[in-house]
Specification:
The longest helix has 18 residues. The chain is built from ten helices and ten strands. α1 crosses α2, α4 packs across α5 and α8 crosses α9. It has 329 residues and is α+β, with helices and mostly antiparallel strands.
Amino acid sequence: MIGVGATVVVIGAAFIQAAGNDPVLNMALSVSVPTKYQGLVEDAGHTCPEVTPNLLASLLTQESGFNPKAQSPVGAQGIAQFMPSTWESSGVDGNGDGKRDVWDPEDAIPSAAKYLCGIAKDVKDVPGNKQSNILAAYNAGTGAVRKYGGVPPFKETQSYVRSITSLADQPAKGGKPGTTIRAEQGATAVNVAQEVLGTPYSWGGGSESGPSTGTCCSPLGRSGADIRGFDCSGLTLYAYAKVGVTLPRTAAAQYAASKPIKSKSDLMPGDLVFYGSSAESIHHVGIYVGGGYMIDAPRPGTEVRFSPLDSVHDLFAFARPIHSASKEI
């Protein structure tokens, strides 16, 4: 969210509805941006020298995953997660239609760039990395950055800066077999999963091509044979196929094909969340989106949705997929 004293709202925590369609890996930006917003990001990303299209795209990915209807529990709104008071003072009429609408990306994206440029001026004399200071001020306020002489010692803000920086600085090329996914690939996988929010759960459903009818039967006897949709590992299989990463079909096998993440501070959007009492007994997987949330297909009778990480009681591990093959997307 934006505003002095704001705490981080990472991707997922603010979501109420699905993001826009057609996420692609924009080669000019080298960050995943829905097609409909690419021009806006490119244009607004040249508002001032301190703001680049990559930086702006990475920030919007972190704030809302490009969801123009995102709304946080504390009131942050729209694709750039402006607090109402900050929008009142900093929002612009980006499309020239005579009104400033926080829910309209044509206004909110240029406003976010302008706001970043204003912050850049406010913290230009603060020691340290200029981009990190700008992002920290966007999250925690310029007062905090000035007070601490750089990125404040707040875990949320430090994680926020690290996540956006890693995404903004990554090139958009394929991965080599045996290497873990990069930040922009994880963000793209999240965007892909967002596109299928609301798709029914289907036991055994889902493939690299998308939702499919499942099989019979779940441990409680529920069949997916007449339901077109995803089960938990079918969803992750599909999302990662769209970024050129081939995963095994089952949750346990996907864990075996991923690199465990030991510290929560190292998590990034797109990492996988596994549940079970051991590696052999893993029974559920979701896609981490930040802020204590994941996208998952929980169980029969539900649908693909955002779920708190503690919605399943036996969290076992976080892990990052490893390339088994490399291909362009």
